[in-house]
Design the sequence.
């Protein structure tokens, strides 16, 4: 047995009083969960503490909270680990972010999470009449969507999403991961429509700032950000959806510049991301950026030379060959470690802790 | 003892933030770092090529890794851009995890004089190199002008702290505390504020400007409220959104900011005795007035 201090965020909207912190001490085995700690507080010290839970085994997704500033399942976090990660040894537990609070640690899923999940039409929309018996689907095709299917709708990713923090209308990680679950499903007949909808929405797939917080927060390895990147890849490379958010143009401009020069020609990237210097959309966008650009020129950050000329790499030909080989493949090769797993072999090559220079002999042999 | 590294400066440090590349070159000799620049290597993809075609990004990075492994007796590969670190670590994770995939990618890059990436490259951001290879004690002993009285807000950004396991962050190597540790070793005081681990917003600047600049503006405002004199960033893309775009962020959030943002090598350089100008600070859009005032005050105080 060990002693743990839990600092719980208390709040009752109807009381008209502001939220406040309250400390409780519990005695429990260190491998017990934060949820068990809170339930003990409720059973033995203070029956008014509010938390939602059901399975207590990381299955139902109802006990999401923020522990020491990060979203997590209370039932899936050991007291010992939480105490070790706490600044002053006190385990801080508060309701998840980006959602209104109903009471204490209970957030309003309906107001945010479920609304967003419904936004992506989370059911199958097959083409034509259903087959007489079951749908026959290739094994690999379904394996591909098992990652988003692992989602237990706990909202941890939504809680910590940094785009949603400034843009509450962002569809967000959980719902977009769900969207991939259908876009990646061969039985669905609306892949293009779904992608177009999510690409054109200013709060859709191009509103994700690529911050990795959802990957870090998810207790089930869903990696919502990776699913969003797959949605983007399908929207741009496969369906060529020329969205109004410049998502495709930006990606294309960036990739083409690297193919041509090897490193990034930034002065060209901005106008090209808006469709090229002469695109009707480019002018207003560029004018809006003008004050920043002028300042940069004034401070000698950007010179006229740099704006007009960008050197190619010495062996840019080699880089272009890589582009040709990889982009010339009939099928894209996306290795997903969630599905393939990791080799456990120590490996042929060099020991894992080898330094950069060690491989020289063989590499040039 | 000097440390030799296969040096990947990235695109932006040689483009829109030339003061980053310049300040790294200025401090390297003071820290006995020998920079062997990988001048044939291509862009890391910055997450954008990955989004377009994962194998393409992995192949370009495998080529960079292979070039780095050809640098004789280098301690490791080093970068000065968190975004490159994150993008390259992601490629490396896949290449190292799966030997079939590695062979497949190696086949593509081997057309160039049999170039081949071998599992297990050590690729470190300058921040990691400072703490793990040079060491905080050694760094402390080289400080000529401690940053006493300078209140510095660390801004880690995303790519260098998440996901923690891919980036090798654990109890033994608390890489998500290194900026804090370096600021302290240089004699400055750390300002903790809400934005320490948040996103600068740069990745969506062309796609959703408002949201992007709102993010930048909010973190800068939080740092001001916490009474920071300046921020320090290990990533030139963060610098673009927090410094170059700061005047625009001010408009979006409707608040005057004027918060100086330093690149990590600039902050280190200051403490090693270099002048703000030698470190390219006059190139910033937001004049680092508080930092310059601080450095003149220190010089004034130490004058006989
Ligand atoms: S990566 Fe995108 S979806 Fe995930 S938390 Fe960040 S902004 Fe939100
Ligand atoms: S994606 Fe992960 S974090 Fe987000 S709701 Fe699903 S299980 Fe929870
Ligand atoms: S109680 Fe069900 S997931 Fe925690």
Sequence:
């Amino acid at each position: 047995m060990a002693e743990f201090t839990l600092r719980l965020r208390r709040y009752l909207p109807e009381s008209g009083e502001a939220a406040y912190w309250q400390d409780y001490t519990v005695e429990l085995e260190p491998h017990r969960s934060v949820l068990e700690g809170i339930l003990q507080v409720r059973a033995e010290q203070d029956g008014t503490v509010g938390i939602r839970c059901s399975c207590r085994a990381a299955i139902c997704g109802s006990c999401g909270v923020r522990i020491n500033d990060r979203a997590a399942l209370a039932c899936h976090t050991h007291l010992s680990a939480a105490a070790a990660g706490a600044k002053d040894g006190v385990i801080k537990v508060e309701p998840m972010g980006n959602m209104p609070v109903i009471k204490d640690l209970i957030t309003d899923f309906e107001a945010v999470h479920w609304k967003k999940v419904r936004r992506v039409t989370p059911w199958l929309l097959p083409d034509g009449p259903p087959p007489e018996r079951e749908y026959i689907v290739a094994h690999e095709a379904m394996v591909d969507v098992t990652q988003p299917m692992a989602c237990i709708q706990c909202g941890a990713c939504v809680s910590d999403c940094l785009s949603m923090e400034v843009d509450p209308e962002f569809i967000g990680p959980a719902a977009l991961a769900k969207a991939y679950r259908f876009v990646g499903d061969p039985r669905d007949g609306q892949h293009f429509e779904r992608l177009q909808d999510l690409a054109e929405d200013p709060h859709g797939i191009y509103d994700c700032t690529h911050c990795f917080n959802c990957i870090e927060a998810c207790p089930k390895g869903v990696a919502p950000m990776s699913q969003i990147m797959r949605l983007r890849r399908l929207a741009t490379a496969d369906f060529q959806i020329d969205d109004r958010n410049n998502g495709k143009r930006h990606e294309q401009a960036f990739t083409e510049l690297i193919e041509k020069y090897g490193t990034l020609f930034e002065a060209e990237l901005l106008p090209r991301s808006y469709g090229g210097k002469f695109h009707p959309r480019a002018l207003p966008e560029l004018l809006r950026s003008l004050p920043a650009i002028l300042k940069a020129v004034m401070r000698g950050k950007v010179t006229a030379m740099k704006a007009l000329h960008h050197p190619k790499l010495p062996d840019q030909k080699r880089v272009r060959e890589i582009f040709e080989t990889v982009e010339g493949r009939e099928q894209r090769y996306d290795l997903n470690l969630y599905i393939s797993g990791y080799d456990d072999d120590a490996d042929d090559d060099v020991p894992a802790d080898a330094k950069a220079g060690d491989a020289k002999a063989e590499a040039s042999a | 003892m000097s440390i030799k590294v296969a040096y990947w400066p990235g695109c932006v440090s040689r483009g829109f933030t030339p003061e980053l590349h310049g300040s790294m070159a200025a401090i390297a000799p003071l820290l006995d770092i020998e920079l062997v620049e990988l001048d044939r290597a291509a862009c890391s993809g910055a997450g954008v090529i990955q989004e377009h075609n994962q194998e393409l990004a992995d192949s370009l990075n495998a080529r960079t890794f292979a070039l780095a492994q050809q640098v004789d007796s280098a301690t490791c590969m080093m970068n000065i851009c968190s975004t490159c670190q994150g993008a390259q670590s992601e490629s490396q994770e896949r290449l190292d995890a799966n030997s079939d995939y590695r062979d497949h990618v190696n086949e593509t890059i081997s057309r160039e004089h049999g170039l081949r990436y071998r599992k297990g490259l050590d690729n470190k951001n300058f921040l990691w190199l400072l703490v793990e290879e040079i060491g905080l004690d050694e760094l402390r002993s080289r400080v000529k002008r401690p940053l006493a009285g300078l209140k510095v807000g660390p801004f880690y950004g995303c790519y260098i702290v998440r996901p923690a396991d891919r980036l090798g962050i654990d109890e033994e190597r608390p890489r998500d505390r290194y900026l804090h540790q370096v600021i302290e070793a240089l004699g400055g005081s750390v300002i903790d504020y809400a934005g320490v681990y948040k996103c600068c917003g740069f990745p969506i600047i062309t796609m959703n400007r408002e949201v992007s600049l709102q993010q930048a503006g909010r973190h800068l405002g939080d740092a001001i409220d916490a009474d920071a004199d300046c921020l320090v960033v290990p990533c030139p893309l963060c610098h673009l959104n927090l410094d170059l775009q700061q005047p625009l962020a001010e408009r979006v959030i409707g608040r005057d900011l004027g918060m100086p943002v330093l690149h990590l090598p600039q902050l280190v350089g200051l403490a090693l005795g270099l002048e703000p100008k030698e470190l390219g600070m006059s190139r910033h859009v937001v004049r680092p007035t508080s930092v310059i005032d601080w450095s003149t005050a220190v010089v004034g105080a130490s004058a006989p």
In short: Residues 247-327 of chain A form one domain. The radius of gyration of chain A is 25 Å.
